[in-house]
Specification:
Elements: E1 2-7, E2 10-12, E3 18-26, E4 34-39, E5 46-51, E6 57-59, E7 67-72, E8 77-82, E9 91-99, E10 102-105, E11 109-113
Parallel strand pairs: 2-11
Antiparallel strand pairs: 1-3, 3-8, 4-5, 4-9, 5-6, 7-8, 9-10, 9-11
Length: 115
């Protein structure tokens, strides 16, 4: 069984920064892709960023240049550095990992951007 635990969400003013973390534990062999989705109220879940095992990253156009995804393979942990936050970034952020052909999800962490 695989568990993902997210941390780092919260309330931040526009222009502020947050760092989200997602730690994976359990029956983990090799993690291929790690990433983050988000879902705002009334909207579909969207891919924010992903990173492969060799460090190749991919970002949604709306966050490119502001968000940075990284991973620590030794700790089975991924991070999402979020800068220059905008109100439209308000959402629940979900981390995921892919092990072979299976995907595992975290419970989500709320990010609220408001003055």
């Amino acid at each position: 069984q695989v568990q993902l635990v997210e941390s780092g969400g919260g309330l931040v003013q526009p222009g502020g920064s947050l760092r989200l973390s997602c730690a994976a534990s359990g029956d983990i062999s090799r993690i291929y892709t790690m990433g983050w989705y988000r879902q705002a109220p009334g909207k579909q879940r969207e891919l924010v960023a992903s990173i492969t095992a060799d460090g190749t990253t991919n970002y949604a156009a709306s966050v490119k240049g502001r968000f940075t995804i990284s991973r620590d393979n030794g700790r089975n942990t991924e991070y999402l550095q979020i800068n220059s936050l905008k109100p439209e970034d308000t959402a629940v952020y979900y981390c995921y990992i892919r092990i072979q052909f299976k995907y595992y999800w975290g419970p989500g962490t709320q990010v609220t951007v408001s003055s």
